[in-house]
Amino acid sequence: MGRKINKEAVIQFFILISMACLLIYVMLSRKVNYYVHPRFYIGLWISIVILILFAISLISKIKKARHNVNSRHYLIFIIPLMAALIFPPAGVSGKDMNMAESSLSASTSEKQADENIDPESSTETATEESVVREDASKKYEQYEVAGVIVIGDDIFSDWFFDVYDHIDNFVGKKYQYLAQVYSMKDFKADQFLAGRHFMVCCAADLAGYGMVCESDIRSKLTDDEWITVTGTITAYQYNGYAVPMLTDVTITEAETPEVEYIYFNNY
């Protein structure tokens, strides 16, 4: 008579090892970048170690047979594991991309509504305050190369929202960055958004933001295409708001980066 085994312990062992292997795969392949912020990587590696230790602890139980084992309730773990294998991780589409809104403009509008302040006098006050405020563009001058300020992924989020909050500081300066192409229904034929997707914590809060660009080769570009865009910032009126726009644009093809998202580090 053959030796019986504990089928429930075998199933538990399989699930734990499968979860650990799946996490190891997404970590080593960098697919994890689609799901969580890099600041969680240490926690994920710790989770992998814990899963493996739990699996090892079950080995001794496998040889201890049990009767009337109901394995159906383990489907709740097996189904998502199978789904992860059938549907591989992939980045989001640029269809969710939009323009950012200046936090300064928003706060000014709220203050006007609350205090019933005349918009013109408020604008004058904001202008005076911007003169006193330190030039927000100066901290990026260290990245200038041959007259062009190159914005890498590590500083992209800070730069992008600084431009929206302090457009006047950046007007007339030339920048270069890696981006995806996206169209908007109310844009002119030569306009498009050049932007990236931003992550604060995980895929649930992922949001795409882009900067308006004008180029005579717009018709040759396709949505979601990766490009390196270089252009001079100007202030552009869009739906009653002043937003940054790149003009005198130069575009070159770019390969899809290993890490597609921009991660916030200052929170």
Which descriptors apply to this entry?
alpha/beta; OB fold (Dihydrolipoamide Acetyltransferase, E2P); 2 domains; five-stranded mixed barrel; about 35% helix
pLDDT average, as an integer? Answer: 82
| Fraction of helical residues | 25-40%
Query: Would you give the CATH topology of the largest domain?
Result: OB fold (Dihydrolipoamide Acetyltransferase, E2P)
Radius of gyration: 26 Å
| CATH class bucket of the largest domain | Mainly Beta
Low-confidence stretches: 103-117, 119-132
Distance separating the two termini: 64 Å
Write a structural description.
The chain contains seven helices and nine strands; from the N terminus they run H-H-H-E-H-H-E-E-H-H-E-E-E-E-E-E. The protein is of the alpha/beta class and 267 residues long. It folds into two domains: 7-86; 94-263, OB fold (Dihydrolipoamide Acetyltransferase, E2P) (Beta Barrel), CATH 2.40.50.140. A hairpin with a 7-residue loop joins strand 5 and strand 6. Helix 1 packs antiparallel against helix 2 (41-62) and helix 1 (7-28) packs parallel to helix 3. The protein is elongated. The termini are far apart.
